[in-house]
Design goal:
The protein has 411 residues and is of the alpha/beta class. Helices cover 52% and strands 10% of the residues. It contains 13 helices and 10 strands. The strands form 3 sheets. Strands 1, 2, 5, 7, 8 and 9 form a 6-stranded mixed beta sheet that branches. α1 runs antiparallel to α2. Belongs to the AUP1 family. This is Lipid droplet-regulating VLDL assembly factor AUP1.
Amino acid sequence: METRGIEDMFDFRRFPKQAALLLLLLIYSPVGICLMLIRIFVGLHVFLISCALPEGFIRRFIVRIMCSVLGLHVRQKNPRSRDKNTKLYICNHVTEFDHNVINLLTPCNTPQLEGSTGFVCWARGFMEIHSTASQAAMKECLQRYCCTDGTAPLLLFPEEGTTNGRVGLLKFSSWPFSLTESIQPVALRVTRPLISLNTPESSWLMELFWTFFAPCTVYHVSWLPPVSRQEGESSQEFANKVQELLAVELGLISTKMTKADKAEHIKRQRHSVPQRAASVTPVRLGFKVQSLTTDDHRLAKMATQVKDVLPHVPLNVITKDLAKTNCIDTTITNLLEIKEDTQVEAAEIATSGASKGGSHSSASAPTIKPAAKSFGKTPVDRHLSFQERKEAMYNFARRRYIDKHGLDQDD
């Protein structure tokens, strides 16, 4: 499990990835919307009936039948393993309505440890705890409840967070196992076609609407024999033992990932969505964008090599020429010739500005420009060749000036 990663334990997509299932969901959508509207109306009646009828077998039977209309089907395995003297049920957590489903099979109370209080807490079927200023106060309150005769058993979810129920169990918190010496493990498996059972950042109300929209949601409840704490066994060891029992029963893997790890993973997923969205455009453009980035890197590397040979040439000029030639040697030759022409023109401007007067000769200047005898294979050779061309260029400009103004060679 650790090699698969925590992302396998949660569904961040509500809809399936397969094209065939998406098409089937699209065809089913009008039916699902009609079912959702009808089930909202029926659900109000289920709520009123559950409030009006007294606690007992008759109410649980009627509500269970009406929940089947809502698409919630409950099946249980090994009901005879349920111990009536056990005051604490320990169950894995899959959906926001696990406690309601198990309450259809046997009376039990689930404390609301976090979230809304008051009417909403009562309407969802939670038991509100008032002394929740600290975990110690909460544990003391629940311990007193378990020691009170005539109270219904407690139902706790030590994972403290939902999973998709397909891969593994979150690490069980140890504090529920310090309440009593004996617990009743309850293994819960939930299946639903077409859409996911839950998404990490969805509210319980949104999950209720999706439950009404789905064709059905089947809850498989398996009762395991009660487990007692061994002598000298700590609460965490007791929790690990029960976690392993439930994992084996469900065919899942017992992990060391906690509720905090889930919260951190959700935070990473939330921040990674904008990054993935920003990277969609270059990915959709295809291989051209990737090759462009690769070419830019290669041109930058080639420009650096040319810069080593011609340190006085600006880098943008080198890069522009390399984009045309795509060859280091050709670019160096081109830049040397450009440098040579520029310096010849500069020499002409300087000499003409220095002259104080005189007639301009119509004699034509030499048309043959000095060129290197050979192009060096190494940077040192190319540098020497450049110095030779530079000296020849100066001589060429001097001769041109002398011929133009009719001066003697000695002058």
